[in-house]
Amino acid sequence: MKDIKNIELIFENCDSIAFNPEHLENIIMDDFKTRVHRCACNAIYKFDCANIIFIYIFKRANQTYQEFRMDGFNRLMFDRITSANDITGIKLTYGLEDEEEISVDWEDGSNEYENKNQISRITNRGDLKILICSPDNPRYKEFKELFDNDEDPEEIKSEEEMFR
Fold first, then answer.
1. How much is the pTM?
2. Which residues contact 155 (CB under 8 A, 6 or more apart)?
3. Is residue 33 in some structural domain?
């Protein structure tokens, strides 16, 4: 098991937002598939895709960040995440030279820039929940219930209970 130092959400427009692990109440990535895919410029890539991603981020993480790391383009992190369903990947950083990028289950929504498998919402307490999972996935219902639940995070069933 590796200790994760940083979690970065990567967006369709190549922007990204990073969180420290202590900003997360929960993160679950499951139902992994390895895929080979032709991308632009005739490049062929092999990558891992998590078909189920659930992220619960505490409201204290909702800080101002600079879009594209440019001066004058300041925005709250949660506003950026909830404004478009366009997370394409999650980068996990373990150390200085050790990182891994996991792709999400992407299906074009109303346009090619939005993922219809992603939903995000702010809870009654101001925390952020993100679910990326196809409604066709056999486990979608259990994760949708977790997403819709507004109970105190300590009341939410543990990961061990979910994977029994």
1. 0.87
2. none
3. yes
